[in-house]
Model the fold of this input.
Amino acid sequence: MEMRYNELENGISLIKLGGKLDIIGTGEIETKFTGYCSGDNVRVIVDLSGVDFLASIGIRLLMLIAKSIATRGGKMVLLNPIPDVHNVLEITGIPAIIPIYSQLESAETVLLAP
Done:
């Protein structure tokens, strides 16, 4: 599992994931991913365009982090999952908790809104 992190000019954290978000992939990134999402009032975009498989443990990680961020006054959104991953997210009801966007600009606008 690959993970790249950078901070955008507007202070939003962009985390780009690539590979399989299964038990092995989740284990490889969980600690660093959690660290990138720590702090108060953080704004995080998780780019899933490079994720080609999403298992229940990966969904669990995303949910736990999103809820943790929300309790600290922040927001998290998902960006541009491939169709198979998007279907898994839809079936599991994730968009009701973590919004999904197909364009970076849309995700940024939502995160910067009061």
Q: What stands out?
A: Helices lie at 23-36, 56-71, 83-91, 104-112. The radius of gyration is 13 Å. The chain has four helices and five strands.
